[in-house]
Amino acid sequence: MADASFQQKFLEAHNAYRAKHNTPPLTLSSELTASAQKWADHLLSIKTLQHSDTKDGENVYAKSSSATINPTGAEAVDSWYSEIKDYNFEKPGFLSGTGHFTQVVWKDSTELGVGMATNGNMIFVVGQYRPAGNMNMPGYFEKNVLPLA
Q1: CA–CA distance, 76 with 4 (Å, rounded to integer)
Q2: Contact (Cβ atoms closer than 8 angstroms) between residue 81 and residue 87
Q3: Residue 46: count of CB within 10 angstroms of its CB
Q4: How confident is the model over 87-103, as pLDDT tens digits?
Q5: CA angle at residue 59 from 120 to 39, to 5 degrees?
Q6: Neighbouring residues of 65: CB distance < 8 A, sequence distance ≥ 6
Q7: pLDDT digit string, tens, across residues 43-88
Q8: Which end of the chain offers a freer environment for a tag, N or C, measured as fewer CB atoms within 10 Å?
Q9: Please, which residues bridge with residue 128 across strands?
Q10: For residues 24 and 43, what is the distance between their CA atoms, to the nearest angstrom?
Q11: Contact yes or no for 10/73 (Cβ under 8 A)
């Protein structure tokens, strides 16, 4: 389960990346966190990474290791944000390889929830966002995925 420290580091990592794009910080939502935690627990039970049927935005992350995993809360966010290298700010829009990044920095998203489930060697992290990002209507990516400041 995502304890307070994990939740705080997860939120801080999001907001540090969002600040680089002149995007307002997110706030932690207890409702979204409960939903994300429920999904993370489910993912661990089936040991498969997949999205839920939420109407909110969602990023999912998994990692496994033979050594014990001790996540801080930033690893998943760092992984999602690393997709920036493949995002073309000159031709904004949704791409399958950059959707985690664009959700992290999506300007119109204001609330965040986080869930984490682990058995020690496998971890699943779920981030849920409201309002959802990656809305693929004309002008939405230009308005919500801002270049580095």
Answers
A1: 16
A2: no
A3: 9
A4: 999 999 999 899 999 99
A5: 55
A6: 121
A7: 999 999 999 999 999 999 999 999 999 889 999 999 999 999 999 9
A8: C
A9: 58, 113
A10: 30
A11: yes
Task: Name every residue whose Cβ is closer than 8 Å to that of residue 18 and which is 6 or more positions away in sequence.
Answer: 24, 25, 26, 104, 105
Beta-strand relationship, 57-64 and 122-130: antiparallel
Position 132, amino acid:
A
d(CA 121, CA 62): 11
Phi/psi of residue 92, each to 5°?
-65, 150
What is the number of alpha carbons within 13 Å of residue 148 lying toward its C-beta?
6
Q: Which two tokens stand for residue 125?
A: 């992290």
